[in-house]
Specification:
With 89 residues, the protein is mainly alpha-helical. It has one domain. Helices cover 47% and strands 9% of the residues. Strands 1-2 form a two-stranded antiparallel sheet. The N and C termini lie far apart (52 Å).
Length: 89
């Protein structure tokens, strides 16, 4: 399946599912792009096979046209790492 076919499939699925209709079409296309890239890395022998991510593991959606992204508000743990390396702070 080509990149364009995957993008079209994502748009078709978006039209059929009312929950996905809240997303901009470019976000759906970006998810298809991420899957395509993961699949290509697998076929090139650079990564394990792509698998379905649970919703809580998807930390960002990219809005390519507007230039911003939605991110989860969870702290990634930089503070914990800092404290661990430098002793007690």
């Amino acid at each position: 399946m080509s990149k364009n076919e995957l993008r079209q499939l994502a748009l078709d699925l978006r039209k059929k599912n009312p929950e996905f209709q809240l997303l901009y079409s470019q976000v759906a296309q970006q998810v298809a792009e991420r899957f395509y890239q993961a699949r290509e890395r697998f076929f090139d022998g650079l990564a394990n096979k792509p698998k379905k991510k649970k919703p809580h593991r998807y930390l960002s959606l990219v809005y390519p046209q507007s230039g911003w992204r939605l991110c989860d508000v969870r702290d990634v743990g930089l503070e914990k790492t800092k404290r661990g390396k430098h002793g007690s702070t």
